[in-house]
Amino acid sequence: MVGDGERIQFWEDLWWGDQPLGVRYPRLLRVVMDKNIPISSILGSTHPFSWNFNFRRNLSDSEIEDLESLMRSLDHLHLSPSLPNKRSWSLSPSGLFTVKSFFLTLSQFSGLPSVFPTKLVWNSQIPFKIKSFVWLVAHKKLTKTDWVPPRSIFDMISTNFNGFGSSKRGIVLWQAACIALLWVVWQERNARIFEDKTRNSENLWDMIHFLASLWAFCSQVFKGIPLNVIHLDWLAACNSNGLA
Q1: Residue ranges of the Reverse transcriptase zinc-binding domain (predicted)?
Q2: How many domains does the chain have?
């Protein structure tokens, strides 16, 4: 936000419109005496402005047209000499920077839903490299495999599987199974392309089953339940007595 204009560079800083004026009017920038001159030195502090541009030479016809356009665009600008200059964050109604406003804007550009299961991914008892992998997949930073996942990772993980029930254990196990599926398919894809190795569907399912069981076993909601019990029967582990 422009106050007295003492510390904002007229040509180089972004203070009017969506581009620095030096980028918007490059022909004028090439002929000014001082490219780092502050706003106050060119416009003064009151309206009408003083327009002290200090060009190195007489302007050409095209440069005069640019100058006219620039002056017209600034004609309705109002400086506040009694107030200091301050930065304003355009993505937030308050003008203050917030991580939430920045994240929501990035999500819109990347095609992600505005709410990503961040707590699930980063707080789960899953190896860090696999958490990072899921994050990259969600942001579409990895090469697509022949297997086509749901519309988004959010849809896949947030879908409730009724067979596991709505308990915390059922939710954790389903989400662990989804992540295990992504990870195993990605590993199999790489093995086939780079190592010319192939596992059959039974071996792939065994690995998905084991990883999901292991990660669920490491979670707080499955505390006290042996790994072999979880691995043997997912449904029984989710719906047993003492269900979380």
Answers
A1: 97-148
A2: 2
Give the model confidence (pLDDT) of 200-210 as tens digits: 999 999 999 99
Same domain, 132 and 80: no
- The CA angle 242-222-184, to the nearest 5 degrees, is 140
Q: Residues 79-101: what's their mean pLDDT?
A: 67
- Domain with 124, as residue range(s), is 113-239
Domain assignment present for 105: no
- The CA-atom distances, in angstroms, between 15 and each of 12, 20, 59, 101, 201 are 9, 7, 25, 20, 59
83, 118: one domain: no
Is residue 158 within 8 Å of residue 117, measured between CB atoms? yes
pLDDT tens, position by position, 136-153: 777 766 655 444 555 566
65 and 126 in one domain?
Answer: no
Region 104-127: mean pLDDT is: 64
User: Is there a domain that residue 95 lies in?
Assistant: no
Q: Which pair of tokens denotes residue 147?
A: 């297997």
Q: Binning pLDDT at 50, 70 and 90, where does residue 21 land? A: very high
Q: In this structure, is the dihedral angle defined by the CA atoms of residues 28, 29, 35 and 41, taken in order, positive or negative? A: positive
